[in-house]
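Please fill in the sequence for the structure shown.

STRUCTURE ENCODING:
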């Protein structure tokens, strides 16, 4: 397969702006909107995402297997599903943020639950085939990391843009509302804009990469069996692979940690550090810069250290720098609140943290593409959809298990709802620092234990590709 052009990589990555837009909404606005603005119990909000996760556990592999076995001479295996996802996802994102007035606790709970499921289901129809497509665009060991770095860059850069744009132009202070994020009227028009952008990004990306379809691999094995029993058998076979098992467990732990941190972000910035809206608007710069830097750093580190070592080192560094500002403040080593140096220091630390988390994502997704080739060698089946449905499911743990655990933590520390900073007890603020610092550091670094067993090096991968080539051309 010939090397990919930068244009193809850019168009491919652009589609994942849809994921980035959704992430921007979910990371900062969704949980805060329903719990702090509308008054939904945090434990119920956490339960919502856990219920949605159960649906994902079924829908992600089903979509993956269906796309693996889909046959279309004009549009291939992946592109039809990517196209079909666009309009529903845009519509459901908008509806999620316009619950009718007077629903009460259970009404808000069911509104959040139903539309969270629909948003995540429509995302599945783009994400699983889209990630699978990235694995199929090239068989080169190092270029795969380059492809995934474009995908990760758009996924990481766009949330920063969405958050900054929203804070500057939608969630601004007004008479009677000193915190713009408490302005309930700002959420529906902002969600509408995000829905339109999602639809456009998916359409442009999917149509722009259609010229790659003739060169993409097709599944040559038996495709008529798609029963639940057959699906479970395939997962059992995949999980027997040490490479697959270690990578899945690693990425699950990483995403759960991210999920907890995601829910706590508005609490950290609004209460623990008590920054203004203008200061708050500067913080997403860290994510955007991290995404851009990782586009170049991930392939370089993959070449220098190999993918596995790069993931291990990157995981320790992201854990260290994400938790550093909180840990220093917990132990009294950070200057007093209001000191001008604190915000630049926080942005620097989080920029480095985001850089390495995006490096880790690029390398681990490239590693999963290599695992799919190992599975092909052993079974004769091209099952990228099956494998990347696992990555999609793990990613959704960000707002699944992570959100659930975050809701439990908020309940355990009894953090008050619908209150201003001056009404929050000091001991509750101290708990925020402990969670953001030591707790998340330990959780992130524990993921390294799982990836230690990953066995595919560059040399082993080249052996796999050689054997696959020999089997195709005896």
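FILLED IN BY: designer on duty
SEQUENCE:
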């Amino acid at each position: 397969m010939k090397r990919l052009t930068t244009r193809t990589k850019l168009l491919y990555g652009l589609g994942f702006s849809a994921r980035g837009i959704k992430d921007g909404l979910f990371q900062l606005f969704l949980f805060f909107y329903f719990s702090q603005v509308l008054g939904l119990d945090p434990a119920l909000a956490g339960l919502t995402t856990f219920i949605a996760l159960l649906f994902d556990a079924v829908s992600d592999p089903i979509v993956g297997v269906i796309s693996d076995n889909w046959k279309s001479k004009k549009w291939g295996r992946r592109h039809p599903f990517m196209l079909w996802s666009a309009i529903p996802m845009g519509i459901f994102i908008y509806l999620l943020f316009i619950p009718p007035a007077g629903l009460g606790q259970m009404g808000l709970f069911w509104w959040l639950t139903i539309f969270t499921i629909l948003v995540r289901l429509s995302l599945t129809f783009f994400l699983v085939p889209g990630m699978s497509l990235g694995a199929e665009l090239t068989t080169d060991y190092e270029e795969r990391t380059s492809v995934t770095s474009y995908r990760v860059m758009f996924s990481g850069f766009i949330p920063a843009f969405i958050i900054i744009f929203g804070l500057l132009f939608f969630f601004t202070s007004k008479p009677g509302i000193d915190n713009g994020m408490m302005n309930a009227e700002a959420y529906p028009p902002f969600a509408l804009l995000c829905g339109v952008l999602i639809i456009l990004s998916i359409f442009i990306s999917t149509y722009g990469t259609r010229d790659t379809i003739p060169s993409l691999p097709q599944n040559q094995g038996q495709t008529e069996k798609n029963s639940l029993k057959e699906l479970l058998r395939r997962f059992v076979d995949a999980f027997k692979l040490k490479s697959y098992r270690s990578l899945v467990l690693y990425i699950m732990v990483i995403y759960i940690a991210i999920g907890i941190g995601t829910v706590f972000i508005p609490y950290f910035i609004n209460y623990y550090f008590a920054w203004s809206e203008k200061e708050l608007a500067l913080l997403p710069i860290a994510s955007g810069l991290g995404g851009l830097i990782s586009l170049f750093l991930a392939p370089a580190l993959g070449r220098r250290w190999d993918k596995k070592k790069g993931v291990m080192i990157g995981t320790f560094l992201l854990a260290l720098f994400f938790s550093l500002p909180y840990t220093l403040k917990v132990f009294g080593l950070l200057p007093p609140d209001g000191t001008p140096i604190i915000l630049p220091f926080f942005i620097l630390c989080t920029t480095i943290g985001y850089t390495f988390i995006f490096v880790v994502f690029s390398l681990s997704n490239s590693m999963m593409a290599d695992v799919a080739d190992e599975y092909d060698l052993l079974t004769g089946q091209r099952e990228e959809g099956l494998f990347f449905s696992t990555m999609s499911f793990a990613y959704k743990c960000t707002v699944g298990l992570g959100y659930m655990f975050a809701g439990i933590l908020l309940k355990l520390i009894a953090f008050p709802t619908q209150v201003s900073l001056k009404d929050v007890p000091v001991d509750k603020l101290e708990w925020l620092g402990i969670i953001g610092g030591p707790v998340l550091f330990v959780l992130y670094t524990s993921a390294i234990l799982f990836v230690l067993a990953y066995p595919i090096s560059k040399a082993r991968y080249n052996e796999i590709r050689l054997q696959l080539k020999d089997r195709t051309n005896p």
